[in-house]
Amino acid sequence: MARVLPHANYVEPRKQLQRALANPARGRFIWVIGPSGVGKTTLRRSILRSMCGDPALWGAGNIPVIEKFALLPNKAYFNSLWLAQSLVRELFVPNVNWLRDDDDLENPTFLAVTSEIQRAHRSLHGALLPKGSEPAMWEHFQRLAPQRKVWLTAIDQAHALCTNHRNKDPADHILNLLSILDVTDMNFLLSGVHGAADLWAARPEVRRRSTVIWMPPYSYERRGDRDPFLTLVRTLGKGYTFSKPGLLFGMAPELMAASAGIFGVLKKILVDAKERADFAGRRAITKGDITASYYGSRDLKKLWDDVGFFEDVMKSADTSSIAKNVASAWGIERKPKAKKPTNDVGPDKEAA
Questions:
Q1: Which CATH class is domain 8-214?
Q2: Are 149 and 58 in contact (CB under 8 A)?
Q3: What does the domain layout of the chain look like in residue ranges?
Q4: What does the pLDDT look like over 186-235, one tens digit per residue?
Q5: What is the pTM (predicted TM-score) of this model?
Q6: Is CATH 3.10.180.10 the classification given to domain 223-314?
Q7: What is the distance between the alpha carbons of residues 266 and 239, in angstroms, rounded to a whole number?
Q8: How would you list the strands of the sheet with 152-156, edge to edge?
Q9: For the ORC1/DEAH AAA+ ATPase domain, which residue ranges apply (predicted)?
């Protein structure tokens, strides 16, 4: 099983998501937004495994959580009919990959549940899954999800819903999901990069029913991120042998620049550096192995651009200008604070 490294920028979002999922209120959107590589999928799945408990206790034919990755099957555009069909299929033949980590293929719980799902499907003797128009498929989903005791539908790569033909507004998709929340006892958990914010932008009815959990990368511009990032570098380095003591820690500024502060990118750099050392027949990783594992200039620029877009989306709006207008209209403008007397000797005092 993959070892989850509880670094600083993973621990706090984990607490927030766990709290949001533990909230018994239904009819809500829960968003997990962060650049690719910060650990959104790992975070979600680890919590769901903990919350859903032993599958043997779910009850026959019940599945508490279904998970689907949003794709672009229609000539690189999102297709809402495909999503409806996929979610209905999950109610009959669910993919329970969330019960294991990606490198834990022999997980006994996952294998047992998968085997039972396949057995149940075979017992239907190949019965066809529901088919029909998009409205009909969403109607099937609304009716069948409560029967299966689904309380959470997770849609990963949710930003794909924003890739549409010119005559399709991304808000149409999220408003459709909102209408489903109105008639089912469940929540939607949507994960994605910063572009997913377009799904709630200018839609206050969606934003009001949303809990947004941000998973930021480490930033050299946030002073509080320096020590956690250095700790992360030191911790990751313990799993490798380097040509010089302190080599990796001494490269921390370079590693921040090369990874944009993203955990997954930093981890991949070290994995690739180890492969380079192994290929060269060396046990120890050199500085050259590490620098040769950095992204190319074009990829690195895109990485930093994405982080910049994410930071802009995450940032709260500045309300000071409007607040001044409100204070003026209400007649509650703050009086400027009186200056405290000082013992400074100004020009006038010197002249006296």
A1: alpha beta
A2: yes
A3: 8-214, 223-314
A4: 999 999 999 999 999 889 999 999 999 999 999 999 999 999 999 999 99
A5: 0.88
A6: no
A7: 13
A8: 65-69, 152-156, 187-192, 29-33, 210-214
A9: 27-198
